[in-house]
Fold this protein.
Amino acid sequence: MRIPNKAALDALTRENRLSGSAATQIQRALSEASPGPRAHPESISGRSSAKKAKSRKTKVTALAKGESKGEASVRMALLAAFGDWHQGGEVIQELIPFRTRRFRADFAIPRAKVTVEVQGWSHHGRSLSDHHGDRERDMFFAKHNWLAFNISHGQALNQTGELIDAISHVLTLRDMLPRDAIQVEPVEHKHGIWWRLITPI
């Protein structure tokens, strides 16, 4: 889903599809992208916004502790598009959504039960047990109505625009939980802080 103008943004906000913080960030981006009235980019160039997004890359400028370049690229794209949960946005990094299993999502939008997992070759697929472990994880998330976007390291580096478009569209299709229904607690880890859902959703 693309949000081409303020009217579309206002409609999504009224329908409780975006948090106030995310709406503010998108409004700022709309203002910066279109300083004055102009035609929709698709009508000018004939090139669809999906193709533009597909070719867009996120330049990785800094890595968090224990983070691959692919994860950093996705982190920056998600936070730019949807905002950080701890600052009123939608994205939580390193979320453990279940009490019964210690599965963790690289990134999550818990109000929509959406996760993003960057699956580089070094940790996913080196062995048959890795492959089976990932399938077990995917099935557990699906069983609990979580939609997982599993992307390769190459996609994380080169196709973040396509990922953001896909997630934006999914957010229009899934019911968004109220923000106050979601509580998280910090969990210390060797790579920093992970987050665990306190209440099941």
About this structure: Confidence is low (pLDDT under 50) at residues 32-60.
